[in-house]
Write a structure and sequence with these properties.
Helix content: 55-70%
Low-confidence stretches: 1-12, 626-661, 682-722
Number of strands: 16
Distance between the termini: 88 Å
Structural class: alpha/beta
Length: 722
């Protein structure tokens, strides 16, 4: 009977686990627009597995993304402090999380202040002002300084104002606090016995189950991984030492987000080659002492190397932006890369840049890319939008009007759902930023605490959205039952014949449908909004100026591609410019449903209409051109092949200079009606704005016409490129 009960409990636990796993994966799937995976086929289908996941950039969202793609039940090690929270602890227990007690979570502040009385003669002796060491501190506790700048184990307590630590604190920040006038505040944390946690981990692994662990110890928003904790290696070596036939596999898992805190952003999860636990390190672990510590350090280095193969690590944000810009400009083939392949290509760019960053050719390209990115920031556009600006005024005007029409269609579809969910957007934004500020104040590793924002957005929305829909549904019932005379339409009369519960449920379903439709069609509308600005710039400044930026991009892209093709084989022997997509591997994207497909169909219709419109405009303009094509002038050089010497990479011909104040004053003086008139004239080919306007308007229109038909000298004042 006892065995049967255990089996029933296990089955019931798995049912609860599977239900909550399905729930959270759907919720997180709604938060992200696209989640791609690479190399999930490398995950062992049977036997014990330990997923070592990094970087920990999205707090409680990271485990769910692993659950979406691991295809096996994974049980995570979770901070016991989080498990003690009412809401998070409930879900953590349902997902069979293993609590891990951390010393920093149990730390408490003590009375008085401490200082180093003699830093050089007695660096391990801590003295105190108004302290009560004999009452508040015990031998074996950990003495911790503010902001985690230093910590040490208490070796002996000599009096209320004097104790001895096991080793001196060598960190500069710790020494500054301990030697400052008046001393520093401090905390103590009790020794934590982790035997129960290790026993639970070993039990799961011996049953052939999977464990998930974040070896950095906590979430953060840095561009590089934090130093890894030794806990994962102790678990792996300890479990294998206790059971030599275990066959444990370590799977390095990398999480890469494009914008981790933004709603409807994108993410990629990458699984590395499984790592076996080396038998020689297991033997060292059994010996204990220094050999045990050396075995853990050696295995930690192996795991860290595996994680570096599936993560993006740069020393700072500027370097990461530079690498991503270079990856976008690189043109290996004419085929587009999937999101997972883009992440892998970025990883290879980081490795190449780390090796060759000091080469003169790399330094020269780095400066040119910085200049190009500065121009993009000035124009307010993205790199992928530069090609959109390579159109004439007539074509730009037609596309502008066309996309505005589609924007109105998409916007009208998304408007109802956007309105009813506006309170959710406002409240989640305000509260998540407040939580981020609190997390930043309590952390020494976070930069802006972006790692907690997505978690709090999801948690707040899970409470607020059902509450709002309940309110809307109740209001719908009241409106139907007490509809005024003017609202007594046939539809309302028919609905009023339904029961109150039915009306409530139909209102709830309608609100859900409107919200999801707004979600999908709204993001399509946002994409259209982003594509309008390049067309607007072309209409205002003219294609003769935007063409220069496009040429600069093309030359920069050619030079980056040439350099990568030259240096790539030195790092990756299998490098081939014609098989880049095969080398990077395939990735699976998880987003497919009826509404998504409907929105994509709308988007395809818009693109097909654009192509037909552009062909018609180009054919019309071509038929109107009766004069032969003019010869290229000095101001408009041909974008032909370079005449540079062999093996000498050309420098940038374009030096960016912002518009003059006079030019900006001219552009700012253009009213919306004058701009619309100019767009209409460009589309219809009717020339300049109407000359029958008033004197003031005619003057402004003449200024705009001067901008459109600039002489070489005027062009130099507008956007100066040399």
């Amino acid at each position: 009977m006892a065995g049967a009960t255990d089996v029933d409990d296990t089955v019931e636990t798995f049912v609860v686990y599977d239900l909550f796993r399905a729930f959270w994966t759907r919720v997180v799937g709604l938060f992200f627009r696209e989640i791609a995976e690479r190399n999930a086929h490398l995950i062992p289908r049977t036997g014990p597995v330990m997923f070592v996941v990094a970087p920990h950039h999205n707090q409680f969202v990271d485990p769910v993304i692993l659950l979406m793609h691991a295809m096996r039940r994974v049980y995570f090690l979770t901070a016991a402090a989080s498990m003690r929270r009412k809401f998070i602890g409930f879900y953590g227990r349902c997902l069979r999380g293993i609590p891990v007690e951390r010393q920093q979570d149990l730390a408490r502040r003590c009375s008085g202040k401490i200082f180093l009385e003699d830093r050089f003669a007695e660096p391990t002796v801590i003295s105190g002002h108004d302290t009560r060491f004999t009452q508040e501190v015990q031998v074996g506790m950990k003495l911790m300084l503010p902001n985690s700048v230093g910590q040490a184990r208490v070796e002996a307590i000599e009096s209320d104002t004097r104790l001895r630590i096991s080793s001196e604190m060598r960190e500069l920040a710790a020494l500054e606090l301990l030697t400052q006038a008046g001393g520093t505040a401090y905390k103590v944390a009790p020794h934590v016995n982790q035997d129960d946690m290790y026993r639970a981990v070993y039990d799961r692994l011996n049953k052939g189950e999977c464990i998930g662990i974040f070896p950095e110890g906590g979430s953060h928003d840095r561009t590089e991984m934090l130093p890894l904790k030794a806990g994962a290696t102790i678990m792996a070596l300890g479990a294998t030492a206790a059971n030599p036939e275990l066959g444990l596999k370590i799977v390095p898992t990398g999480l890469n987000y494009f914008h981790p805190s933004k709603f409807r952003s994108r993410a990629v999860i990458d699984f590395g080659q499984p790592i076996d636990v080396p038998a020689e390190l297991v033997e060292k672990y059994r010996q204990g002492g220094d050999a045990k510590r050396q075995a853990c350090d050696d295995f930690l280095s192996i795991v860290a190397d595996g994680l570096k193969q599936v993560t993006l690590n740069t020393p700072d944000l500027e370097t990461l932006k530079l690498i991503q810009a270079g990856r976008r400009l690189y043109q290996p083939t004419q085929h587009s890369l999937t999101m997972a392949q883009q992440v892998e290509l970025t990883r290879r760019f980081i490795k190449g840049y780390t090796v060759y960053r000091d080469l003169p050719a790399v330094a020269e390209l780095r400066d040119r890319m910085a200049d190009y990115n500065m121009q993009l920031r000035y124009y307010g556009i993205r790199d992928h939008q530069v090609e959109t600006m390579r159109v004439g005024r007539a074509e730009a005007g037609a596309l502008f009007v066309w996309r505005v029409v589609w924007l109105l269609i998409m916007g009208l579809i998304a408007l109802p759902g956007t309105v009813i969910n506006a309170p959710v957007f406002v409240v989640t934004s305000v509260f998540s930023k407040r939580k981020a500020r609190a997390a930043l104040a309590a952390s020494t590793v976070k930069v802006r605490a972006l790692d907690v924002i997505a978690t709090w957005k999801i948690l707040i929305a899970l409470v607020l959205v059902p509450f709002l829909y309940t309110v809307y549904s109740v209001l719908a019932v009241v409106f139907v039952r007490r509809a005024p005379t003017w609202a007594q339409t046939d539809v309302i009369k028919q609905v009023s014949t339904m029961s109150t519960v039915a009306i409530y449920l139909w209102a709830w379903a309608l609100a859900s449908f409107m919200s999801y439709t707004a979600l999908v069609f709204g993001e399509q509308a946002v994409d259209i909004v982003k594509s309008i600005r390049p067309l607007f710039l072309t209409l205002v400044v003219g294609s003769e100026h935007t063409e220069l930026l496009a040429r600069q991009r093309q030359e920069l892209s050619d030079d980056i591609t040439e350099l990568v093709n030259e240096l790539g084989p030195r790092i990756y022997p299998e490098f081939s410019t014609t098989r880049i997509s095969e080398q990077l591997g395939d990735g699976l994207t998880t987003h497919s449903n009826l509404i998504n497909e409907s929105a994509d169909a709308f988007h395809r219709k818009m693109r097909m209409g654009e192509q037909a419109l552009r062909q018609r405009i180009n054919s019309t303009i071509g038929s109107r051109q009766t004069s032969p094509q003019s010869e290229p002038t000095e101001e408009t050089p041909l974008a032909g092949p370079s005449e540079d010497k062999p093996n000498q990479r050309r420098g940038s011909k374009y030096a960016f200079n912002p518009p003059t104040p006079r030019t900006m004053e001219t552009l700012n003086s253009i009213s919306p009606m004058e701009f619309l008139s100019t767009v209409t004239g460009a589309v219809l080919g009717t020339g300049s704005p109407s000359a029958e306007s008033s004197d003031g308007k005619h003057e402004a229109g003449s200024q705009f016409e001067q901008t459109r038909r600039s002489t070489p000298e005027q062009k130099k004042g507008l956007f100066y490129f040399t």
